[in-house]
Every structure is written in C-alpha cells, then in structure tokens.
Amino acid sequence: MKNKKKLTPNLQALLAELSPIELETGIIRSNPQPPTGLLEVANSNPRHQLENAVLETDLRQALTRARKNSGATIREVANTEGISVARAHEIEHANLKLELQTLVRHANALGYEVSLTLTPKNSSLERIETMLQ
Prior knowledge:
With about 130 residues, the chain is mainly alpha-helical. Helix content is about 55%, strand content about 10%. The chain has a two-stranded antiparallel sheet with strand order 1-2.
C-alpha cells in the first residue's frame, strides 16, 4: 500500500500559483519582487514555500500515524499535553506553521521521542544523531 499524501489548503494554493511550465519542469522561479522585510525574505521563494509545506505535511502525517499507532484519541493526547482538543487537532491537521518544540511536545505526549539524524552523502563524513527534547 502506497503512503498517500493529502494536500493541505496552503499547499494547494501554492501549487495553484505555479505556471504550467513550472509544474511540468519542476523549476520554480523566485519571486521577482524584492522582499521588504525578514518575513518576506524567508517566504519569498516559491520553491522554499512549497518545500516547507511538503515537509510540514510529512511531519503532521507522522504525528497522526504515531497517535493512531499508540491507540490514543485526540482528546487523550490533548489531556496529556494540557492543551485543548482543538489545538491538538490543529497540530496534526491544520494549516498553521508547525514549530519544532510543538512537534517534540506532541510526539512526547504520544510516547515517542524525536531524533534528528544528519546522514552524510559523502562516506568520509560522520553520521550525526541527536535527540530533540
């Protein structure tokens, strides 16, 4: 069974802004207008926006899978975390920015730890792994 990815409204909106040539070739042009502030700099490149949206979707799907694997309901996770049921649902499904600390806290409430592994592309480099807390 293939792992199907659901497109969030944000991701759908970003894809809708791409030209047919960009969609066909996978080459996405940067925003031609110069950014005016820090947030605009971070979000001005459509490719980065798309990559971030895909990454956040992957992380949310991982949290949902972890919750289902643990047998917990959204309500149980919310109670463990000390947050509202609505907020717990947002963490797994909403179109809001997913902060790293929120990801770690939610995973911990599900009985999971979060680790980061830097796997070298070059065999002469060391593999690095760290637990996020």
